[in-house]
Write a structure and sequence with these properties.
The chain has 330 residues and is of the alpha/beta class. It has helices spanning 27-38, 82-96, 115-123, 138-150, 152-161, 209-221, 230-246, 301-329; strands at 6-12, 15-21, 46-49, 54-56, 75-78, 126-130, 165-170, 181-183, 185-188, 193-196, 206-207, 260-261, 267-269, 285-286, 289-290. It contains eight helices and 15 strands. Strand 1 (6-12) and strand 2 (15-21) form a beta hairpin. Residues 6-52 form the Ubiquitin-like domain.
Amino acid sequence: MAEADMQITLTYHGKPIDLSFTHDATISDLSERVAAELSIPPCNQKFLVGGKLGLQKPPFKEPALPLTALTAKKITLMGSTAAVVSSLNSTISAASAPRRAGPIKAAMPTRTRDYKKMQEEAQYTFHTLRPLPYLPHPARSLAFLERLRDDAGIKAAMRAHQFSVPLLTEMDPAMHTTPESRTLGLNRNQGEVIELRLRTDAFDGYRDYKTIRNTLCHELAHNVWGPHDRNFWELCKKIEREVARDDWKSGGRSVGDQEYYEPGGEEEVHDHGGWTGGEFTLGSARGGEAVVSSAGGGMSRREVLARAAEERVKRTKKAEEETTGDNGGS
């Protein structure tokens, strides 16, 4: 047996992992070692290789690609362990189970709080936020998504147009980048799922907040109009104006200590129009389309909508309880 005399270094969750191989090893051997030693099954593996090779994932286009071609390149491993995926699927299944909800009582108006507005904000919002757990610092991405959801201008526009979006998630930059362009956002099935490119291409920084917010305005317009026609652009610009007008908290606040990306180089496009489809899975691709990447496991269209319905009931119930509590004390 040949001696192990070649070392490959992977970056996983920001930490280097060194693996030794023989000189005749291939990228398929690398995938097998990752599955055996890191418990990440091949179906969950993605290797972002520096240079022209780009994103590689099983089954590889060149399964016999020699590892000697990768020794001098930066390799980032992305993927969730089988245990994480199993845990997430169990959580989703429990959340998707039918639950009995009591009757919703009408909120009693008071002088001090606008309960109609509170109930509308509970209904017209992004009901589930999901960062990508296999990229560095998912908590920062979650904070970014929360800031978008709670943005005063976005909240006002959501109420004005009665937009209710089951899932807002971050986009995997590697899945939507070509040498010619970067896609900034995607809207699935008129607002069932909206993806936003939050990160820089290096995954460790975040893009300008107002640029991402304008992309979100663009994707919200696809809730009504699919093609980029005159109707779409009129609505898109209207939403952008409304968000800017009602953004009373504006002040250039940043999320965390990370630096923000200044656009340049390749052309950046919002998207290629609203896109549709039947059942879909988070973190996979079907029919040649890159589909929403999320926290590890799969989530069907029915499950996304079920989760959103559950979140909507919780928000409405919370608004009712606050109404009842304030009335009882006045």
